[in-house]
Amino acid sequence: MTLQQWFWLSQAFGLVTIGYEFVSYQIKDKPKYFKYQGISSLFWFFMFFAVGMSTGMSSQYSLMVAASYSTIRNFVFAGIFKHNTPRSKEFGINFLLVMVVIGLVAGTMTVLAAPDVSRWIHILGMTTALTFVVCQYLPGVHYVRISVVFYALAVILTQTPLNILYGDFRWNVMGIAIELSKIIAVAVFYIKSRGEEKKPQLEFERPNFG
Q: What is the model's pTM?
């Protein structure tokens, strides 16, 4: 394939990513949400790989690692919530802690490697990313959707002319479109849910005294 063909293939993968991202935030069922998120992250990885084949792989390694991290996390979470047993929940908490530690280490390395003047952008990105990972695991439909809006805004900020002025020359139109799709998807979800009955975030079984 030519470099131009790899580029257009990357854009096609990006559009598929947007589709799965948008649909996932209309889903309330946790296993199904994580399944769609996992597929979205997989195509996200394919997009970065194709971009690397088009423009140079060295600039895409960290992004492919991030996409792989997201893919594994989402598919594991899907299995945890599908089984929904005490053992799976215990594994889920331990797995979540491992994911947070990995994200913290990787994020800290990115922050330290960033130019001093733009470091605050990367700190914001790391903080919102870790918050989103934790909120994905929390019960209910609101935590993950509210946190992903802040995460998406932070990611968009790293792809703006403001960041380019700071000397970090990245401009990814498809990346911005993917993050905007998350914000739009959340807005659509709440518009569609306005008339639905409100349910508690946590539900407990009645105690059995018999």
A: 0.84
At 17, give phi and psi (nearest 5°).
-60, -45
192: left (phi over 0), alpha (psi -120 to 50) or beta: alpha
d(CA 64, CA 60): 6
The values of phi and psi at residue 29, to 5°, are: -70, 120
Query: How many other CB atoms are found less than 10 A from the CB of residue 162?
Result: 12
Q: What percent of the chain has pLDDT over 90?
A: 52
pLDDT attached to residue 199: 61
How far is residue 1 CA from its own chain's centroid? 30
Burial profile 6-35: b = 16 or more Cβ within 10 angstroms, e = fewer? beebbeebbebbbebbbbbbebeebbebbb
Chain position carrying tokens 């130019």: 115
Rounded CA-CA distance 133/178 in Å is 18
Tens of pLDDT along 3-25? 889 989 999 999 999 999 999 99
Report residue 205's pLDDT band, with 50, 70 and 90 as the boundaries: very low
